[in-house]
Amino acid sequence: xxEQPADSCIIKHFQSYTNIDDKDQQLLLSLExxxxxxxxxxxxxxxxxxxxxxxxxxxxxxxxxxDMEDGSRQVLDVFxxxxxxxxxxxxxxxxxxxxxxxxxxxxxxxxxxxxDSIFASSLTLCNLMFMIIARDQAILLERLVNLGRRTARxxxxxxxxxxxxxxxxxNALVEKHLSLPxxxxxxxxxxxxxxxxxNRTLQDFRQExxxxxxxxxxxxxxxxxxxxxxxxxxxxxxxxxxxxxxKSGCSMxxxxx
Amino acid sequence: xxEQPADSCIIKHFQSYTNIDDKDQQLLLSLExxxxxxxxxxxxxxxxxxxxxxxxxxxxxxxxxxDMEDGSRQVLDVFxxxxxxxxxxxxxxxxxxxxxxxxxxxxxxxxxxxxDSIFASSLTLCNLMFMIIARDQAILLERLVNLGRRTARxxxxxxxxxxxxxxxxxNALVEKHLSLPxxxxxxxxxxxxxxxxxNRTLQDFRQExxxxxxxxxxxxxxxxxxxxxxxxxxxxxxxxxxxxxxKSGCSMxxxxx
DNA sequence: CGCCGCGTTGAAGAAAATCAAAGCACGTGG
DNA sequence: CCACGTGCTTTGATTTTCTTCAACGCGGCG
Lengths: 257, 257
Prior knowledge:
2 copies of one chain form a homodimer.
Chain A: H1 9-15, H2 22-31, E1 36-38, E2 43-45, E3 53-59, E4 62-67, E5 73-79, E6 84-85, E7 98-101, E8 105-111, H3 114-121, H4 123-149, H5 152-169, E9 177-179, H6 184-191, H7 195-207, E10 211-213, E11 217-220, H8 223-230, H9 252-256
Helix pairs in contact in A: 5-8, 6-7
Chain B binds a DNA duplex through helix 7.
């Protein structure tokens, strides 16, 4: 239960946006519940569950989704290490989406009522929370554009490039290789396509030398090419209310900008 | 510049979620800039503009959109009287979307830095702002499901029923008639379809006796039927952190639930 | 071994886009 | 008051994109 600051998921996440002073760090530490191990395919929560906490994802992948009456599902979000899960359910007493772990994972829980303490005692953190939720929304907006006005090729390319970008922020992107624990089915459910079509589109990309896939692993051979296919522009990921930039940990950022 | 509380857009909006005490009302009043008239087709702001304020929409309709490189556009949001416009741009120094007025309108401006005063002086309002932005996100999520996993029929029906629901909240829905200043083109851009296809789907609905359209006007003949077509469930519109329900102004709410 | 989840492949079909043109309503100016 | 332009709706014919269905291979794992 007593972590060092370096182990705190939420502080690490917040630090990537702006500097958090010692006082605020202590506040966060005192509110966060220690890391817990979860195993693959565990359901973090389901639509309709009581909504009284959110999580920070320290290690592993997760995704949120909505089940449809006809048996299909829409994947709404893919979470990677460093992400906050469930902040958007803040306004509801019951969960409006479900969340499943795509890999074994380490999570920190954060009871919702602790948000009050944050709002009450730190203007910086209050602003920051607001900024994070607003950035989440920007990502959703972009996903909306993706689903509404792009072809399957563009959708898939855009999704992958965005993911690479987000992974770059927390250094999980080693060279152009990244572990991608997403089945073609999940990709399809995220992009509003069928897995069959995802499969064929991936084949096209491989033939064009844009990427390679294999065994939960993705190799981006030509990120610029992919970004071009997608019409990708990273502006929507770059929050800038606080002047201090995130510590740039990765060459991706420059390569894409 | 000196409005009575009843004229304040933002207070009215907030009151629909929970009770605002006098102190908070005064605070809001002091921060809000008086109502301004705008005319149809005016651009509130454009992608890339400096982002330093948001608006409350007192009268009229607006929509936010993103222009694509290929000339098409994706409509992201349709705003109706009582809505807050631009809250989600909070995290960015420049606008990530554009907003255009669909009718003549009355708006109140709210400088962003005033949010700090709110965060600093009222825990209630701080929570409320958070709730509102979270609810916005829930609506976006639902729109995402709409775009990703529904047919044209379902998309259109869902969109219209959601709109009716939202209008019901602020009493703009008289009987089953509502003014709908949306061209088929805008509907298409909102739903990721073409106006031709919207036209044909609307014709189907008319033939099935579900609705009537004409001249910026929509008549919902069979809301239940439409909701059924759409697989509509209003849970995502019902925020419930604050126990007090919004004053129910309209028979719609019961009819649909 | 046999099952199961996942990726891959092919053929056929459905949903929606595209292109092009015509009609209609409304405001504006002659 | 009528002619005209403009923006929106409507219509038909054609094409593209993506889905559906069905089957097979392959690897991991109980």
